[in-house]
Amino acid sequence: MTKQDIANRLLALPGEIATAEDSVLEANRQVILAKEILQQKEDDLLLGNAIDGKNAEIRAAQMRQHTEHERLNLSNAELHLKNDVTRLGRLKDEFRALQAVANLLQGVA
Predict the structure, then answer these.
(1) Sign of the alpha-carbon dihedral angle for 18, 22, 28, 31
(2) I need a labelling partner for 90 at 20 to 30 A (CA). Which of 15, 33, 56, 81 fits?
(3) What's the CA gap between 107 and 97, in Å, rounded?
(4) What is the pLDDT of residues 59-92, one digit of tens each?
(5) In the chain, what are the domain boundaries?
(6) Burial 64-93 (b: 16+ CB within 10 A, else e)
(7) In terms of Cα–Cα distance, which of 76, 88, 73, 92 is closest to 25?
């Protein structure tokens, strides 16, 4: 990587980091929304007497059975959030590493 490549990358990274931060915020919003939808479905099932098991284990199994789609959506949203957070971390690490290299090169020049 040449000095110019390092400079160009350092100039590009803040924009990529900002975009990644926006993605993390949106993914977090999607997780919150998925949790709210799941909670609403569970509330509807409880209030609608669809959950009528004799003990807690049976009621929990019934709840899982009736909310499979919502739980899958929540799981997918959480995975997406984790991936976005990881990507953001990698970009920040790359930025710090390139800053360190630029500082070293500045001392050599």
Answers:
(1) negative
(2) 33
(3) 16
(4) 999 999 999 999 999 999 999 999 999 999 999 9
(5) 11-103
(6) eebbeebeebbeebbebbeebeebbeebee
(7) 88
Length in residues, the chain: 109
Joined tokens for residue 1: 């990587």
- DSSP structure string for the chain: --HHHHHHHHHHHHHHHHHHHHHHHHHHHHHHHHHHHHHHHHHHHHHTT----SSHHHHHHHHHHHTHHHHHHHHHHHHHHHHHHHHHHHHHHHHHHHHHHHHHHHHH-
